[in-house]
């Protein structure tokens, strides 16, 4: 029974989250144009167009990247370069670790299998695209309905609150709305700044010869990954490192590159990691406190526990929603404690 | 033409919520459309005989307008009855502005039907219709100013 309802619940949760993100802007546009449907159309129109443009441009650029990489693979010296790379890594590592590096002929096999896996994953993704489009379409429809009817829905919900709890119920609903909305808008702002900072950082690395392509997309992916607290930043670096390796195979300079001329950093790997760490530090110490502030007000230990619970229960999506869900629980708990302590006032 | 005009206005006056709120000082000077927007945000509630609308010291969230029935405002500690309010009367409007606890209890002494307009509704209204929100805030300020003037006069007279 539950698995049947899970997609519907997820659709509703996503629609509710999108509604919360856009609600203030729709209210603002309605206040100025006197038309709510116009506000909803404008906001969703701009958002959907931007997403389509991003995906379209991402796919075409990724296609170009794959094409260039395939060309590189077909060249005779690619296998030799890969062999050399394997040997060089083996030589530079202590004996114990060098046993872990596969033989040169196996490296090509591993690389081949890796690419086959990537293509298989893309095919599997395309296979599930049908259901993805259906879910996205339903989320869009629910979001439109919720955005247009939000205040009426809320009013209908309030009708079910007994007179005794009316005022406290209204306060709780308002506080939950504020909690989620503040958190989401803060996170989006923080993610945008991480994206911008990562793009700037990658451009700077390119100035030093890192040869990283798809910079803007990597930046946006890093920004989006940043929405998952604690683990997200590490996800953000992976595409940058992979692309730097893909583009620099066979480039002797990139292979022997060292960070600050001291730390060996083949293919600018440690440069990229350091750049992302700097971006994270700027985000954690300056941007997030400014835009997200104490919106949820959870102790870092509680954040980690909540993330683990979310991740164990639902996976990455659970981690994404764990903090706002904990924020909502915190508001509810606060009100429940208030009601229990002050039951004589109700 | 006249029939259309009359029917149009008769239709307007049929809504009891609109009829009740248009007489409230803080909603004075508002157009029909603006009153409709407010009515759309209010909450209609039914109270049984002797049911509390709110208790003294409870956190205050908003005001009520009586559609029908009777409400008694009293101090449960001293037993003093401050007012008996009827259809069209309103109470608790100060809670729209501050978060101070209620200074008295409100009990329904007849089966009553009330309209609740709360601080969260006012905040939503300010966001959705800033002009309308400003008008209500100005009206609230005017009502409070009038009350202050009245209290000052009474104080001066008592001296």
Write the SSE topology.
The complex is a heterodimer of chains A (346) and B (159).
Chain A: H1 2-33, H2 36-74, H3 76-92, H4 95-98, H5 104-127, H6 129-159, H7 166-207, H8 215-225, H9 232-248, H10 252-255, E1 258-259, E2 263-264, H11 269-291, H12 300-314, H13 316-341
Antiparallel strand pairs in A: 1-2
Helix pairs in contact in A: 1-2, 1-6, 3-5, 7-8, 7-11, 7-13, 8-9, 9-11, 12-13
Chain B: H1 2-14, H2 16-21, H3 32-39, E1 43-47, E2 52-54, E3 62-68, E4 71-74, E5 81-85, E6 90-91, E7 105-108, E8 112-118, H4 119-128, H5 130-158
Antiparallel strand pairs in B: 1-8, 2-7, 3-6, 3-8, 4-5, 4-7
Explain this structure.
The complex is a heterodimer of chains A (346) and B (159). With 346 residues, chain A is mainly α. Chain A has a domain at 1-77 and 104-160. In chain A, 82% of the residues lie in helices and 1% in strands. Chain A has 13 helices and 2 strands; from the N terminus they run H-H-H-H-H-H-H-H-H-H-E-E-H-H-H. Chain A has helices at residues 2-33, 36-74, 76-92, 95-98, 104-127, 129-159, 166-207, 215-225, 232-248, 252-255, 269-291, 300-314, 316-341, and strands at 258-259, 263-264. Chain A has a two-stranded antiparallel ribbon. In chain A, helix 7 runs antiparallel to helix 13 (316-341). The longest helix of chain A has 42 residues, at 166-207. Chain A is elongated. The mean pLDDT of chain A is 79. Chain B is α+β, with helices and mostly antiparallel strands. Chain B has one domain (2-158): Jelly Rolls. Chain B contains 5 helices and 8 strands, in the order H-H-H-E-E-E-E-E-E-E-E-H-H. Chain B has helices spanning 2-14, 16-21, 32-39, 119-128, 130-158, and strands at residues 43-47, 52-54, 62-68, 71-74, 81-85, 90-91, 105-108, 112-118. In chain B, a hairpin with a 6-residue loop joins strand 4 and strand 5 (81-85). In chain B, helix 4 crosses helix 5 (130-158). The longest helix of chain B has 29 residues, at 130-158. Chain B is globular and about 45 Å long. The mean pLDDT of chain B is 86. Classes of the chains: A mainly alpha (346), B alpha+beta (159).
